Amino acid sequence: MRSIIHLSFILLFFVSQALSAASVWQVSKGDKTFYLAGTVHLLSESDYPLPKAYDTAFNASNSLLFETDLGAMTQQQGMMQLMSRNTYAPGQSLQQVLSAEVLAKLQAEAEKRQWPLNSLLQFKPAFAAMTMSVLELQRLGAAGTGVDMHYWQLGQQQNKTLGGLESLDEHLAVLDAMNQLDADEVISSALRDIDKIAAMLDDMIAAWRSGDVAALDKLFLTEMQQYPEMEAILLTKRNHAWMQTLTTLEQNNVMVLVGALHLPGKDGLLKLLADQGYSLTQLTE
């Protein structure tokens, strides 16, 4: 279930186009214009420099909107909230909610990959699954600064206005909801998919860089649709909630940066905006 991998990097998405398109769109309606950019939350050093379309949108924008306030997310208080909401209370553990079969598979995989099993068992299911995927990305050298943090830092340096489509509490509530799903299924899916990450990386990065929405849909959304509850938590509900902000932006020249999987599909932001009468122009190199 590739959607579990999506937890760790709501991310690495899209495949080729002849015109060297990028995952960036200029969105306009009447006298209102903003930029919508699909992001990858974790990248390797070799993925830089980014496609030029990202700098084009950034340089034309006075304000940046991310999924959430990355400043608050990465400060000590935000990290403490993240950990406290995704860690079991004393006397509880992931071991207690997993079947003996799935627990044995997790223990075997942790020993094989030298994962910190005791730490993983203190995490709730979705956060444990995310951690396992991130550990694999680190092993592959692909867990460095992503598009979002890159432009957050540049925005700070250039005194641009920075904000989030979700409050920190709303953002953390996504993992809260994922942690309520069946623990055996979440962990089993992560274990099944862990060996696929390396093979998928090249396709995903190539896809994201070229902004091929159809490829993204084929690679990820088609499979995710087999798990409607997960799709609703991670994508559909959030996309519709974000539309309330996007359709009421009061100023032009805003760059909106969201995980690339939020763009395609019938409930993706590109279609939702088009259905509201917005004109979308994909930027090229």
UniProtKB/TrEMBL annotation:
Q: Where are the transmembrane segments?
A: none
Query: Which Pfam family name is an example for this entry?
Result: TraB_PrgY_gumN
Top-level division of the source organism's lineage: Bacteria
Entry keywords, A to Z = Signal
| Region forming the signal peptide | 1-21
CDD domains membership: Tiki (cd14789)
Q: Which PANTHER family match?
A: CYTOPLASMIC PROTEIN, CYTOPLASMIC PROTEIN-RELATED
Query: What name does UniProt use for this protein?
Result: GumN protein
- Native source organism of the sequence: Alishewanella agri BL06
